[in-house]
TrEMBL record, chain A:
Source organism superkingdom: Bacteria
Protein name, as recorded: Amino acid/amide ABC transporter substrate-binding protein, HAAT family
One GO-annotated biological process of the protein: amino acid transport
Cleaved signal peptide residues: 1-24
Membrane-spanning segments: none
Keyword tags: Amino-acid transport, Signal, Transport
Organism: Marinomonas polaris DSM 16579
Domain Leucine-binding protein: 26-365
Keyword Magnesium: no
Protein family: Belongs to the leucine-binding protein family.
Automatic annotation (TrEMBL), chain B:
Protein name: Amino acid/amide ABC transporter membrane protein 1, HAAT family
Family matches, as PANTHER family: BRANCHED-CHAIN AMINO ACID TRANSPORT SYSTEM PERMEASE PROTEIN LIVH (PTHR11795), HIGH-AFFINITY BRANCHED-CHAIN AMINO ACID TRANSPORT SYSTEM PERMEASE PROTEIN LIVH (PTHR11795:SF371)
Membrane topology: Multi-pass membrane protein
CDD domains per the UniProt record, alphabetical: TM_PBP1_LivH_like
Subcellular location, record wording: Cell inner membrane
Annotated transmembrane regions: 12-35, 42-62, 68-87, 150-170, 199-219, 225-246, 253-271, 277-296
Species assigned in the record: Marinomonas polaris DSM 16579
Native organism taxonomy: Bacteria, Pseudomonadati, Pseudomonadota, Gammaproteobacteria, Oceanospirillales
Keyword Nucleotide-binding attached: no
Cellular component, GO annotation: plasma membrane
UniProtKB/TrEMBL annotation, chain C:
Transmembrane segments: 12-35, 47-65, 95-113, 119-138, 143-163, 169-192, 199-219, 261-281, 316-339, 351-378, 385-403
Domain of life: Bacteria
Entries under InterPro entries matching the protein: ABC_transp_permease, LivHM_N, LivM-like
One Pfam assignment: DUF3382
Subcellular location: Cell inner membrane
Record's bilayer topology term: Multi-pass membrane protein
Keywords linked to the UniProt accession: Cell membrane, Membrane, Transmembrane, Transmembrane helix
Organism from which the protein derives: Marinomonas polaris DSM 16579
Protein name: Amino acid/amide ABC transporter membrane protein 2, HAAT family
GO cellular component, one term: plasma membrane
Keyword rRNA-binding: no
Length: 370, 303, 424
């Protein structure tokens, strides 16, 4: 009986894979957390990639072939990332992948894409390890945590002249990576943090931690993590009467940060590092307007995902749809995207780090700090 | 000094929230001996209903805080209670005569269903509610101060009130007697004319109502939630229920307070990295010394 | 016979109305009012559809259960709680034919299946191992363990960290990890096995969480959330890489073109062998005194103790054996994924393994194997449903439990006949 069940499943899987292979389109995977706790980011990834593919198809496709997107769900679990990556390269015949989102998914998946010779362009995985592995096919259109940490640390030391810095992270690949990078740059400037601790993702009560921040008398709180924890954290910080300046990274770039914090007045003065605004590029403005006309606010990683798709398509289009040549080509050529011209170094990182400091205001909007 | 006192206050308020949710676990366990893993997600649903009720009430132009609070409480409790009833009816009642593990797996499935149902209909993004009640009581101690926000006072007040009402219902009313009878011997109770199915349904509704109380208060206080929020708080509340002695109402509250206090004190005075390791170790230690929890009745080994 | 006989349509309609009203109360707020910042958008059309679907469904169900067929079905459900099925003495199992067939097909799989299918099957086999391990603890010894993932994590991290710090490869870590997990099982088991039922469950849950939290927080040793990469198995010292850092690779030695599928094939074959070995050992153990003791202790602890069984040792042996099987599974998981991080070892994973055991039919080996494949292959098959995948998975879990509360395969046992000439 057991073999019958297995056999049936195998047969149905085989049929399913044969059906997808039969199409002649250019298949590109969009891998990310489409379900699970991080599904909000998966949606940003998908919306960006979907729009980019639609725009490219409307303009004639890739060398005349239409792009066909495959939604690949990894739920930010490494286990699922491995099987979905194998599925993308094997059954779906993807030539390129936009994704994954979580660094902990991107790292194991990248090895599978490398073996299969598929281009991987991640719009969001900022952990340095990903490109430091030295795989030839891995690119990212976002920055690295260490670049982001540098910008924050030098701002804290040079502009704020702060001496007592509390470093908090969310014990996750992204948050901890960011906090560690910031901390090591800070230490290299001769400033020692007064506190370095992690909180648990998914919890909402950080009062104990905040009382501790109050007790060490910090004047700057640096948080490596996402808006889901940053919102309650900054709110409870203010409720306990602390006036410490709150700084975070690109994990809090979302209007939800304001609604989660409870009121715009709590986010007033919060600083964050993020890539230079896409609105500063003429091409970006048009795409953003189109997104808004479609009733979707392109926040967070939406435009990064759009950019990642453009990078992957450019590599394929200029190399007769050969992903291995395309990956080599990307390292020596620059690509025009909605977020400006992108150049990649030998590791697959962007050559120019475009992180700048933003500040939230009392209306719940953010703008670049001059 | 002020820091330690402040941490005690933090722990107390956190603990009362754990206690409220733990009641749902403890009552259901007491009556049918199942671990209701979907309970944390019922709490999550109530957080969404709170935000929806708030949005609706503000939409209809209601501004005063007491009316909003009462209206939200009423709506949330009613709808969440309905969820509790339906979940029991669909996922647990057909398994009444099966092994307890089957019900456990059904509950885990139900928890997945609730999470994904809410995610699909409300979107996966973080949700928030506006701050309605601000301000705090501050006491000056030495150089510093100890504060407790008005919202936290409200949480404490309503938890104590809810606990009191529930204890009265269980100890003094006819419904309470029926519950206790069913808990002691379901077969005997049904022979004596108690509709045990109805009693069990009622217990699920009561558990959901307590989770809804916690859902309204915590959502108004922290302001942030998503479809995944029930998981961690559910595990914590379950731990609290076991710590206090699962099946015992005062035990649930006591367990909640101990858990909240130990987390706050450990996080505040030692390290927040290992606070959960500490609470779980404390749990193991207490259970080794008292195998039925703090206030649980020791299991009688029948021959 | 006409179907309509005996159907009380008034009752069905009332049932449908009540169900529809409940659906309105439940779906109205959550589905109908979608939060948007502090405001909301309304989506009443989909509420109307859902309410209508529930009402119609309830009407059909209510009518069906009034027909003879329906009454018979409801009766069957109410009475499906029978215990172990006892076979006639001298019953010949059909397994004698099926097992070689399964082995033959299993050995063919790596050569005919695509790489993706192969990875899914490997994952399935890893869960078979996990299920078998937990089956000893929960199914046979009756100890509810909600922290089984802790042993799995010990195995997986054992391989990754053992390779990183001590240079131990897959083959040396395979037995060491099993041993480590067994020791961890003993350390956990010794103090807690005095506890009963659900107290044991929460303590083991705590243990699983403690392991995961330590893996997350002790960053200087475990690299925290960043994870550690794990080595691939070697084929008599030959590596399965495109280029080897030292020595020859598998494809160079055999002079065949490189294919990344080889490593999965090799992992599959080793895993397949290990699963069969575990199956065999378990099969024998159940028939040995220790296996009998586990089951006896599950059924009646006091009676066993009165008869002089050392309950702590018996429980401990079940715990350690189960744990070591979990450790083995962890090693395979780490080498298959090439990377481990704490997010693979959450409580949900424990729940999934428990679901395998319960769904398979507590104590039934065949059931565990089938359920493990169902629960790992199912999410992959459900990928067609995209974002509805996990919702479907949850619904199937509930439906399966209601449909087969005793699991897919009922435990059977060969009966004994009194020998002639002995006491009658």
């Amino acid at each position: 009986m057991s073999n019958a069940v297995v056999r049936k499943t195998l047969i149905s899987l085989a049929i399913a894979s044969a059906a997808t292979l039969a199409q002649a389109d250019v298949v590109i995977g969009v891998a990310g957390p489409h379900t699970g706790a991080y599904a909000a980011f998966g949606e940003q990834l998908w919306k960006g990639a979907e729009k980019a593919a639609a725009d490219i198809n409307a303009a004639g496709g890739v060398n005349g072939e239409m792009i066909k997107l495959v939604k690949a769900d990894d739920a930010c679990e490494p286990k699922q990332a491995v099987s979905v990556a194998n599925r993308l390269v094997d059954s779906d015949g993807a030539l390129a992948v936009v994704g994954h989102f979580c660094s902990s998914s991107s790292i194991p998946a990248s090895k599978i894409y490398e073996e299969a010779g598929v281009i991987m362009v991640t719009p969001a995985s900022t952990n340095p390890t990903l490109t430091d592995q030295g795989l030839p096919n891995v690119f990212r259109v976002c920055g690295r945590d260490d670049q982001q940490g540098d910008v924050a640390a030098s701002y804290i030391v040079d502009k704020l002249k702060a001496k007592r810095v509390a470093v908090i992270h969310d014990k996750d690949t992204y948050g901890k990576g960011l906090a560690d990078a910031m901390k090591s740059t800070l230490n290299s400037y001769g400033v020692k943090e007064v506190m370095y601790e992690g909180l648990t993702r998914g919890e909402k009560d950080f009062n104990a931690l905040i009382t501790k921040i109050r007790s060490v008398d910090a004047d700057v709180v640096y948080f490596g993590g996402l808006h889901s924890e940053a919102g309650p954290l900054v709110r409870q910080l203010r409720e306990q009467g602390s006036k410490a300046i709150f700084i975070s990274g690109d994990g809090i770039v979302s209007d939800e940060f304001v609604s989660v914090a409870g009121s715009p007045k709590y986010v007033d003065g919060v600083l964050m590092t993020f890539g230079a605004p896409p609105t500063s590029y003429p091409s970006g403005k048009k795409v953003i307007q189109e997104f808004r006309d479609g009733g979707y606010e392109p926040e967070g990683y939406t435009l990064y995902s759009y950019t990642a798709m453009q990078v992957a398509v450019a590599a394929l289009a200029n190399n007769n749809l050969d992903p291995i040549k395309g990956a080599k080509w990307l390292k020596t050529h620059s690509v025009d995207t909605v977020m400006g011209k992108k150049d990649f170094d030998d590791k697959g990182d962007l050559t120019v780090s475009d992180y700048v400091m933003y500040e939230w205001d009392a209306q719940g909007k953010y703008h670049v700090v001059e | 000094m002020d820091i330690v006192l402040q941490q005690l206050v933090n722990g107390l308020t956190l603990g009362s929230v754990y206690g409220l949710i733990a009641i749902g676990y403890t009552m259901v366990y007491g009556i049918i001996g199942m671990i209701n893993f979907a309970h944390g997600d019922v709490y999550m649903v109530s957080a969404y209903i709170t935000a929806i009720a708030l949005a609706l009430l503000t939409f209809f132009g209601i501004e005063s805080f007491p009316i909003i609070l009462v209206g939200t409480l009423f709506l949330t409790v009613a709808v969440t209670g309905a969820y509790g009833w339906v979940i029991e009816r669909i996922a647990y009642r057909p398994l009444r005569s099966s092994s307890r593990l089957s019900v456990l797996i059904s509950a885990i499935g139900m928890s997945l269903i609730l999470q994904n149902y809410v995610q699909l209909s409300q979107g996966a993004n973080q949700q928030g509610v506006p701050t309605l009640l601000t301000g705090a009581l501050r006491f000056h101690v030495g150089d510093g101060f100890v504060q407790i926000t008005y919202m936290k006072l409200l949480i404490l007040f309503i938890s104590i009130l809810g606990m009191g009402v529930l204890t009265y219902v269980i100890q003094k009313t006819k419904l309470g007697r029926m519950c206790r009878a069913t808990q002691q011997d379901r077969k005997m109770a049904s022979i004596l004319g108690i509709d045990t199915d109805k009693v069990i349904s009622t217990v699920f509704v009561i558990g959901a109502v307590m989770a809804a109380l916690a859902g309204v208060l915590v959502t108004l206080d922290y302001g942030a939630f998503d479809f995944y929020v029930g998981f961690i708080i559910g595990i914590k509340a379950f731990t609290a229920a076991v710590l206090g002695g699962i099946g015992s109402l005062p035990g649930a509250m006591l367990g909640g307070l101990i858990l909240g206090l130990s987390e706050a004190l450990f996080a505040g005075l030692i390290s927040s990295d290992y606070k959960d390791v500490f609470s779980f170790s404390l749990l193991v230690l207490i259970l080794i010394i008292r195998p039925s929890g703090l206030l649980g009745k020791p299991e009688v080994e029948k021959v | 016979m006409s179907q309509a006989v005996g159907i009380n349509f008034k009752k069905s309609s009332i049932d449908a109305l009540i169900a529809g009203f409940m659906a309105l109360v439940l779906f109205g707020p959550i589905v109908g009012v979608v939060l948007d910042g502090y405001g909301f958008n309304t989506e009443f059309v989909r509420v109307a559809w859902m309410v209508a679907a529930v009402a119609v469904g309830r009407f059909i169900m209510s009518s069906f259960f009034q027909t003879e067929k329906g009454i018979a079905m409801a009766f069957r459900y109410a009475n499906n709680d029978e215990g172990v099925e006892v076979l006639k003495p001298g019953h010949k199992s059909k397994m004698v034919w099926i097992i070689p067939l399964v082995i033959a097909i299993g050995l063919l799989v790596p050569f005919i299946a695509s790489k993706y299918v192969l990875t899914v099957v490997i994952l399935g086999l890893i869960y078979v191992l996990l299920g078998l391990g937990l089956n000893i603890v929960v199914g046979l010894a009756g100890l509810l363990d909600l922290g089984f993932v802790g042993f799995y994590a010990i195995g997986a991290y054992g391989l990754a960290l053992g390779y990183e710090n001590l240079g131990l490869g897959f083959w040396s870590m395979l037995p060491i990890a099993a041993l480590m997990a067994a020791v961890a099982g003993a350390i956990l088991g010794f103090p807690v096995l005095r506890m009963h039922g659900d107290y044991l469950a929460i303590v083991t849950l705590g243990f699983g969480e403690i392991i995961r939290l330590i893996l997350t927080n002790w960053a200087s040793f475990t690299h925290g959330p960043n994870g550690v990469s794990a080595p691939l198995p070697t084929f008599f010292g030959l590596e399965f890489k495109r280029r080897s850092s030292d020595g020859q690779t598998f494809h160079e030695f055999f002079n065949i073109p490189y294919d990344s599928a080889y490593k999965y094939m090799f992992i599959y074959i080793v895993l397949f062998a290990v699963v069969w070995a575990v199956l065999f050992i378990k099969h024998r153990l159940v028939k040995m005194p220790i296996g009998r003791a586990w089951e006896a202790l599950r059924e009646d602890e006091i009676a066993c103790r009165s008869l002089g069984l050392n309950h702590v040792l018996v429980k401990l042996s079940a715990f350690m054996l189960g744990a070591s099987t979990g450790g083995l599974a962890g090693v395979f998981f780490a080498t298959y994924q090439g990377f481990v991080n704490p997010s693979s070892f959450t409580f949900f994973e424990s729940a999934l393994i428990l679901a395998i055991v319960v769904l398979g039919g507590m104590g039934s080996t065949l059931g565990v194997v089938i359920a493990a494949f169902c629960l790992t292959v199912l999410p992959e098959v459900l990928r067609e449903f995209a974002e509805y995948r996990v919702l479907m998975f949850g619904i199937l879990m509930v439906v399966m439990m209601i449909w087969k509360p005793r699991g897919i395969v009922r435990v059977t046992r060969t009966g004994f006949a009194a020998r002639k000439g002995v006491v009658k």
